[in-house]
Description:
Blueprint: H1 2-25, H2 29-32, H3 34-45, H4 49-65, H5 67-77, H6 79-99, H7 103-131, H8 137-166, H9 171-179, H10 181-188, H11 212-241, H12 248-273, H13 277-296, H14 299-321, H15 324-327, H16 333-362, H17 366-384
Helix pairs in contact: 1-8, 3-4, 3-8, 4-7, 4-16, 5-6, 5-7, 5-16, 6-7, 6-9, 6-10, 7-8, 7-16, 8-9, 8-12, 11-12, 11-13, 11-14, 11-16, 11-17, 12-14, 13-14, 13-17, 16-17
Amino acid sequence: MAQNTSQFTLREALPVLVLLWLAGLxxxxxxxxxxxxxxxxxxxxxxxxxxxxxxxxxxxxxxxIGAMPGSLAISRLGARTALALALIVVAVGSSLRGLAPDAFxxxxxxxxxxxxIAIMQPALPALxxxxxxxxxxxxxxxxxxxxxxxxxxxxAGVTLPVLMPLTDDSWRLTLLAWSxxxxxxAGLLFLPKSRRKITSERPAWVPDWRNxxxxxxxxxxxxxxxxxxxxxxxxxxxxxxxxxxxxxxRALFWFNLAQVAxxxxxxxxxxxxxxxxxxxxxxxxxxxxxxxxxxxxxxxxSIVFAFLMSLTAAxxxxxxxxxxxxxxxxxxxxxxxxxxxxxxYTLAFAVPMLGGLIADSTGNPNHxxxxxxxxxxxxxxxxxxxxxxxxxx
Length: 393
């Protein structure tokens, strides 16, 4: 009988899980459609290489800058309203890129879009405690993270072969086609009923910088994100140096597919894996080791290690992002997540940048990835000290 009750409540939560997955898509699709469209945009607007790269890096930087405004929005408006408004900002900002007449307008619209995504990030874990029962929090985190990682793969892999032909090879119409459905998702967010009573009391929104957990999770999140974004950024340079640039497409395909595979596995195992400190330690250690083995090997074996690094980094990301609703009181979830994302995405931008500067000075692109490994090793001891006891609401 208990099993039937559990199955019933899970079926009851299914519409909410679908909405969480759709919202998760828009954490990454608007960002990851830029690289495949970049040659078309650069050709029409006469963008330099730096400006072309900024189409992707500016939104990533905004993920760090906008996390605290996201926490403020959650405190003042509630998680659901904050998420819906952020989705509207993402859809409008991303659509405006398709209407941009020049480079300045294009980058300004990209920054607005990135700000919306930054607000979405702490709003999603905060919304889990409003919509879902405690037994389904880990599953809810895995579902929207699956949507996010699927968004990475779909945005990068579907745009050119599928969507561009449907829009008569217009990069502007392609951006609009990816962006405007976000408005529909924003409207659908108001359909589910809240499980928690609305109170007039406004929770604190500024991250508790004195809380060690804020810093520990943020520093570890920075390791996971830096490993993924940094390896993506420098893989072409590494392969070119070893004379294997012709394998770049295959390496990037499997590297990014590993993120999807990780999220699918977490959908099945989240209730057993999330909240286990030992798994965070293991995944971070494996990510660092497999990145080192990618640098130490060549050919097919090297691609296998790149796949494994991406897989373990994605598992680590999901394990960390799923923690705020589990280890904090519901009213503190948004600001804990905002603190984590502020620290984590600042490091996701800064550590690969530092690696690139070191590689430029030495002339060896491998040193960029070695910088990522060094950072991961330096923060690994923090994982042993995590206090993951559940806090009651």
